Amino acid sequence: MHVRPRLAAAAAAAVLLGAALTGCEDGAAPPRPAATAPGSPAASSAPPSPSAVSAPATPAATVTTAAAPPPAPATRLSMSVTTPGGRLDLVRGGPAREFTVILRNGNSDAYRHLLLAFQMEALVPEPGDTPGPEASLLLERRDPGTGRWGPAELRIAGDLRPYSFYEGGSPLARDEVRTEYFRLRATPGGPTGSSPLMVRAIDTDAPEGTPEERRRPAASSLPHRTRRAS
């Protein structure tokens, strides 16, 4: 009668112990590793996290903007008239003397019709001069294409011809330089004396009433003398 209760108590204790062991193997989480104290070998050997490493500073790019060049100053048409010796020294009935007209256009205006006009005041006949029917002075221009000389207009007068009376001319672009060649000859029976040869560049497209410097943008002159043959 006393043996059964002891066996039953032992059996119950065995059942409770087995249940405890089964719970640890099946449902319990694995034990956590022990925390590593700062400064320990394990903490020192651990690699730093990416967020803890700061990237090297990158200098800001410098953008340089080139300054626009200043606009070129405005330039105008200029003209020079030259000859060897600086003057046209002619002899009645003698050879012609050549001279050069150089047009240097500026960057302000382009011309569609620019005309060279030549004028000289009349020479006063001296005693013994016997002017013939032909002009006392003959002007010629050399054709740049053929090299041949042909007649050019020379006005002998003391007054100024209105610019609106002139027509024709050649184009001259901006910054263009043009050289033209002329020659002047004194006829055998013409008068002698001195009078400058005046050369004007006339813009024949300029409207009437515009300022003179617009209608006649350039002008020059060349000293001249005609003498008798010795």
What is the count of helical runs? Answer: 3
**Which secondary-structure class do the elements indicate?**
alpha+beta
Q: How would a crystallographer describe the biggest sheet?
A: 5 strands, antiparallel
Report the strand count.
13
- Biggest sheet, strands in spatial order? 1-3-9-5-6
Mean pLDDT: 80
Shape: elongated
The quaternary structure here is: single chain
Report the radius of gyration as a whole number of Å. 55 Å
Distance between the termini: 185 Å
Strand content range: 25-35%
Annotation keywords:
alpha+beta, 3 helices, single chain, 230 residues, disordered N terminus
Structural description of this entry:
- The structure is a single chain.
- The protein is α+β, with helices and mostly antiparallel strands.
- Helices cover 14% and strands 30% of the residues.
- It contains three helices and 13 strands; from the N terminus they run H-H-E-E-E-E-E-E-E-E-E-E-E-H-E-E.
- It has a five-stranded antiparallel β-sheet with strand order 1-3-9-5-6, with no helix packed on it. Strands 4, 7, 8, 11 and 12 form a five-stranded mixed β-sheet that branches.
- A hairpin with a 6-residue loop joins strand 5 (137-142) and strand 6 (149-151).
- The model is unreliable at 1-31 and 33-44 (pLDDT under 50).
